[in-house]
Amino acid sequence: PGIVGITNLSIQNDNANEIAREVKKYDKNILVVKGGFHELFGWEYTLELHHEYVDYVVVGEGEKTIVELTRAYEQGRLEGKRQDIIGLAYYDYDNKKSHFNGMPIPLRGNDLDAMIPTRLFYDESYNFDVLKNKKTAQIMTVRGCIYNCNFCTESSFKSVRKRTIDSVFSELTELARDGYKAIYFDDSTFTINHKRVIEICGLFKEHFPVMIWGCNTRDDRLDDELISIMEESGCRYIFTGLESAVPEILEGLNKTHNTEEYLKKAEQIYNRLRDSEIESSVFLIFGAAKKIKNDDGRIQYIPETFEDVKETLKFSVDKLKPKYISMNILRLLPGVPFSEGKKYNLLWPVDNKIHAGYYDKKWYEQNGITDVRTTHHIYRAFEAKENIVPAFMTPEFCYKILGYIVEKVNKINIENNYKCKIVVDEQFEEAYLECKDGQYKLAPFEEIEDD
After folding, report:
1. What CATH number corresponds to the domain at position 13?
2. pLDDT-above-90 percentage for the chain
3. Which of 42, 68, 100 is the last residue of a domain?
4. d(CA 244, CA 345)
5. Domain end (from 100, 126, 153)
6. Is residue 440 within a helix (H) or strand (E), and if so which, with residue range?
7. Between the CA of residue 154 and those of 19, 71, 139, 143, 182, what are the distances in Å?
C-alpha cells in the first residue's frame, strides 16, 4: 500500500506506535498516518517521540482531512500542499518541531449525512450477546453530547450534531440488504430527543420489523411511554450509565445536580424495564471524587470510600435489579476534566495533570519516569488494566469491590430465582471468576496475576 492509517484510543497508543514502526521496517516509503481520539490531545507527543515512523497525524474529526491528504498524495503534491490541509499535523524537520494546521470544522448537515461507513469486513466477534448474537452493525446518529460529565471524553466537544432521519434510514436499508439482523446505536445518549427516537422506532416498525436493536442512554432521559414504543419497534437491550448512587459522587462526576430525582427516576425506569422484553444493563464507575460543601460554603473534593461503594452496589442490585451489571474504575484519560482540573488532583497518581505522555511508553523511557499505568489483572474486571486510575484505587481495594458485588449478586440470584450477570473482561472471567447456575466464585486475590 501507499498509505497505512492507524486509529487508536489512549490505551492502545503503544500498540499503535509499534504498528507504525513495523510498517516502516517493512517499507520505509509507505506513508504512515495516525488518527483517533488519543491524537486530539496527543499529537504533539506522537510527533515529537515517533516522527521517525509516523509521517502525519489527523487531529479531530478526520473524514475530510484524510481524503484531502490521500488526494494530494495520489497527485504527488502532498509535500507542497500539506500546510494547507486543515486537521493535519506533521513534524517539521527544518525547524525540528511539530506543526499543526488547526482544528477542522465539525461536520454538519449534508457532510455528516454523507459519512455512512463502507463496511468492507465483517467478523462474528462483532456481534453482541445481548442481541442474540445476530449479525450486528454499530451506528452513530448523533455526534457529541449535551452533558459535561467530568469523567467523559465527550466533554471535550461542545457541539451536538444530528444526522437526518433520511440518512439513518438509508444506512439501515443498506445494512438490511447486506444481511444485518441487529443494530447497536453508539450515540452517547440515544434517547436525548424523544421525538427523534420515536421517528427511528417508526423506521424499524415499518421497514425493518425483523431487526432487533439496542442503545446507550441515561435513566433520566427515558419514560414509560418511550420504553413501550422502543420495545414495540424491536429494542431488546438498553445500557444506562447510573455511575453511582451516592449523591456527593454524582455531584462530583457532574452527572446531575438533582440527585434525589435522578435516583428516583432510575428506580422507576428499571422497574418498567423488568416488565418488558428489553434487557437492562447498569453501568457504574468507582474511584471518583465526592463533592462536599463545607459549613463555610467552600467546595471540597474527597475520595470515594468503600462505604460509598457498598451504597451504590446495594442500590444497583437490590433496587434496580438489572439483567447485567458493568463496572469501571475511573480512568484518567487525557483531556477529560478529572485529568486536568487542579481541584481534582487528589485523584492523580502523579504530581501534575494527566497528559497524553502518560499513555506513551517512549515518553516514560525518555524522561526516566516510572510507568504509572495499571498492571494487575484485577483491573481487567473493571476495564481499567493498562490505564491510569486514582491512586487510592489499589488492586486490593478493587478486589474488595468485586468480592462485594459477587456476594450481592449471588444472594439476589438465590433469593429471587434471578439471573443477574456481572459483566467483566472475558479473559478475567475465564481465569478468575467462575459462574455456575447464577452463582459466582471469585479466585483468591493471591492467585490473580500482576504483570
Report:
1. 3.40.50
2. 88
3. 100
4. 20
5. 100
6. strand 439-442
7. 27, 30, 17, 9, 26
- DSSP letter (8 states) at residue 376: B
Residue 417 clears pLDDT 90, i.e. is over it: no
Average pLDDT, the chain: 95
Say how far residue 340 (Cα) sits from the centre of its chain: 18
Counting the structural domains of the chain, the total is 2
279 neighbors 320 (Cβ within 8 angstroms):
no
For residue 18, how far is the Cα from the chain centroid?
Answer: 23
Which structural domain, as residue segments, surrounds residue 307? 218-447
Copy the grid coordinates of residue 361.
511508553
> DSSP code of 421?
E
Given a contact cutoff of 8 angstroms between Cβ atoms, the answer to whether 394 and 369 are in contact is: no
Closest listed residue to residue 108, CA positions, set 139, 143, 146? 143
CA separation, residue 25 to residues 22, 99, 361, 438 (Å)? 5, 25, 19, 50
Residue (of 70, 113, 69) closest to 87 by Cα position: 69
Letter for the amino acid at 171?
E
Instruction: Give the integer Cα–Cα distance in Å for 161 and 143.
Output: 5
Q: Rounded to an integer, what distance in angstroms lies between the CA atom of residue 242 and that of residue 255?
A: 9
| In the block, residue with C-alpha cell 420489523 | 209
